[in-house]
């Protein structure tokens, strides 16, 4: 019986030029990405994973999550995660959130920020974004026709939702327990002197003091976490994918027809 080769083995060893500075380990939809970028960090976020699909990031993280969440194959080590993250100085959001222990072991000197949010508003936010995206008819359509990006990307989103809800998206009790358990786990693993618990309404001061940065004088603290924009972005990715798939074969006419169809889907889906 043949043994399946691990995708991560084909990735060269990391050659990190800058240390990992920040592990933003708050649950998804407790955004800190834009603020960290303003302070000069290069942040690996779910959107970055998606944008780097041509570099294999979606398939690679699917492999890592299959091993971690479902026991399929050999679990990734922190050093293997660093192969993917070597050009980044901060992380936030899924898929990295599934690897808290590995990240803490690999980057013991990184500062840990635990962004917090009222659990009721957090549940409303994930249900109006990640949950909505995995239920969109157009996304299911794309999963069926695009095995290159949408199929593994959807798997990452759906597996995350299933983990949070014990496989039942209507299970609010399990979802909220996942939120609480995640925060308790991070607090138990990280020394207090290396951990900042932070709510975005507190502004720049706590983050900058914790990370040793001057407070930006020209920019208010960014509150960028618009759920509707996140959903719209996925419709745009659908259009881009359709254009990539069909432009060489059937030309502009079919691409325009697809765009029209998707625009109608956006109104009714």
UniProtKB/TrEMBL annotation:
The domain of life for this entry's organism is Eukaryota
InterPro entries hit by this protein? P-loop_NTPase, Sulfotransfer_4
Q: Which Gene3D superfamilies match?
A: P-loop containing nucleotide triphosphate hydrolases
A Pfam short name: Sulfotransfer_4
Q: What is this protein called?
A: NAD dependent epimerase/dehydratase
User: What is the species of this protein?
Assistant: Periconia macrospinosa
